[in-house]
Amino acid sequence: MHQTSFTSLIITYNSANEALNLLADLYLYKPANKVIVIDNASRDKTADLIQKYYPQVQLIKNLTNVGYAKAVNQGFDLCDTKYVLLLNPDIRITSPQLFSEAEACLKQGKQIAATAPLQFKSNTPQGKQINFTWSYLAPNAFRVYLSFLVQRRQVFTKPVRVTFLNAGCLFIRRSAFEQIGKLNEKYFMYGEEPDLFLKIKRHGFKCYLLPNAAVIHYRERSLKSIPKLQCLQIKFQAVWNIADALITGWTNILIDKAAVFKYQHVDGKR
Q: d(Cα 240, Cα 191) in Å, to the nearest integer?
């Protein structure tokens, strides 16, 4: 397969097996010009194993767990390609078509900031079970989810516009990401995703779901390495972060719209 304009960016934390499997997928299909891994001080030798088996990876070992958002921003500063493929280590890539479809979507216009595939829970003989994400809150995207849910898949001939995408496997235009201000580092984990997409919307960019491309996502594998009490605390904090991001994001959008309406109304009276 030809090389594309992607840099693959992976954030790891206690995810050695998952990260090695994902890297095997990436080097099988060879979609990226460069692969960058930012390791947030894993205790399970994630960074050491990556360095051993994939020395060609640009590996950054953080001395402490700086959080997901800060690690992503750190990695983006090292990217020099037009597009970046942001990946969780618990993603498995099963088809090279993913990259060509994503690139074709992003090439439709500079206002397209991001695109992402469907995500399946597993690749089982009984049929693929789809992960529910915020993408399906859009009515036209819910049809995609429903078609898989009832196992009567419809034919979708083009990407579907949505407000939210899942950042577990996200193709993003680097220039758009930089223009909106990157991820909000006040969110250590969770909250940065809705904040990102509401900033994308606020700046007039578009996002699209790819209904004919998919990956497998074994969600939140790294949380299993954390003590149960700490994991519970993270979940409670997640609810707060997500609520804060949604309220702040939609409030900013409404303020902008009100300002535009006021300007047009006053200007129209002159």
A: 8
Q: What's the pLDDT at 153? A: 66
The values of phi and psi at residue 108, to 5°, are -70, -20
SS3 content of the chain, % helix, strand, coil (to 5): 45, 25, 35
Low-confidence ranges of the chain (pLDDT < 50): 1-3, 125-126
Distance (Å, whole) CA 258 – CA 230: 42
Give a yes or no: residue 1 inside a domain. Answer: no
Report CA-CA distances (Å) from 21 to 39, 86, 226: 16, 16, 21
CATH number at residue 25: 3.90.550.10
- Residue 228 has φ and ψ, to the nearest 5°, of -60, -40
DSSP secondary structure letter of residue 210: E
Residue 60 lies in a domain: yes
- Please say whether the beta carbons of 42 and 12 come within 8 A: yes
On whether the CB atoms of residues 208 and 160 are closer than 8 A, the answer is: yes
| Separation CA 129–CA 68 (nearest Å) | 27
Confidence (pLDDT) at 121: 87
Per the domain annotation, does 137 fall within a domain?
yes
Give the containing element (helix H, strand E) for 144.
helix 139-149
Query: For residue 190, what are its two tokens?
Result: 């969770």
Task: Give the domain range for residue 144.
Answer: 6-269
In a domain, 141, yes or no: yes
Split into its structural domains, the chain has a count of 1
pTM, 2 dp: 0.88
pLDDT, residue 94, reads 87
Neighbour count for residue 84 (Cβ, 10 Å): 27
